[in-house]
Amino acid sequence: MKSEITNNRLALVNYFIKKEGYKPQKTQKNDEISYLYNSNAKIKIIRIKASSEDSDFRNDPIIEEIANKSKEASREKIQILWIYLDDSSFEKDLVVDSDIKILGNEKNLVSKLNPYFSNVDKLKFSDKTEEKEIIVDLKDQEQVKKLIEDLDDKNSDVSKKFQEFHNKIQNGQLIGTWIITALFCFVPFIIIFYLSIFVRLNNIDSDTTKLFVGGTNYNLTILGGQFWRVFTYGFANSSSNFITDLILLALNMYIIKKLSSYSENIIGAFKLMVIVAVGYVICGLILSVMIPANVFGGSIVISSILFGALFIKVSGKQDVISILAKREMIAPAFFLFFFPMIAWNESIYWVISSGVGIGMGLSIVLNWNYKEGFNGYLFSGYFIVASFITLPIIMLLVPSYIPALHNPTINVLGMYIQRGFLKIEMANEIMEKIGWKWQFIFDGNVLVVVGV
């Protein structure tokens, strides 16, 4: 029963910190008591004791110390809430001047606190994940110092939680991460190797190369009806230069592995896979429809989705794992910013911005605790996702125009014909769907394009 009361105290502390904006006051004198303060709240100080023994009501030197500090900043009378946790439902609530005493347990505390805190319905004593989160205010030097001490202490909860988190990443106990890495890092490497050894695409521009291995653009994916390209464009890392491809792929593989590892630990494997899968297809669709003049391909979209999903998940949080994740996101942020410059392709910024955006939106929608109701934050997630889906659909409903001749599109159709991937009749049908009055024919053994 003692441990249950202690857990209830921790649940209360986390609620007041995360939902009501209170800050913890660290003390070494009594592990059964927690002190919280919020200079902007009506009740400025909260004292939570994991015991029903109330002889210390209105007689606590630490409370006096906190109150004196608060009085220096404000001349208002300090209102203090004294909470005593009990395993019975016996009521002994009391109000003396500006001091409020409440005694209760998980069965009646919510109703007792409701007159003072309108959001107290969000308090969940049975939420184990809330209990495990270790909150740290980085602006509070004492808390930062305590965090460092706890990390050095192998027996502390902070150290154990950090070690567990670290071991999962180091030992490869992350199924989702390995699936994502295999699909969007190892498969592209095999494709690059295949192109360099067997296909030998000499003197072929990068857009044609990307389209050849599954890249997407408006002409082929939307007008030509090759919708499968929204599923394959992430494997098309090719830039027609073998060495450049390997360097960029290796860098992106490192970023994907890092972001995916942290995301899976914090978000969860299933949710992460859903975010990546859905976000990947939506990005492929919106890039194909909304930016018709460009060819898109490459696993950089996965890095972008992962970055957006993780960023919005840890943004504003002060628990130890979130703080660690934020620090580890600095390198990926620089990578995503400079990658288009390294690749000499400014259009990649469209891929990155789309990936980050849809990753953020899906992360909000899938990670929200719907028991807390609907608010502006959740609305923003749905708005982002809905926008990314509806915009390309609206554009598809608008009467399509006949695009100008696009050499990479024509080149890749010709390459498919020459290598037996596509019959000449099917290639000409695609040309007709696009609206081009040109056809492929064989002049002897030479494939040529002629106007009709």
TrEMBL record:
It is found in: Membrane. Signal peptide: none annotated. InterPro entries: Rhomboid-like_sf. It is a multi-pass membrane protein. Keywords: Membrane, Transmembrane, Transmembrane helix. One of its GO terms (cellular component) is membrane. Gene3D superfamilies: Rhomboid-like. The keyword Transmembrane applies. The chain crosses the membrane at residues 175-199, 234-256, 268-289, 295-312, 324-342, 348-370, 382-402. The keyword Amino-acid biosynthesis does not apply. It comes from the Bacteria. This is Putative rhomboid-like transmembrane protein. It comes from Spiroplasma alleghenense. The lineage of its organism: Bacteria, Bacillati, Mycoplasmatota, Mollicutes, Entomoplasmatales.
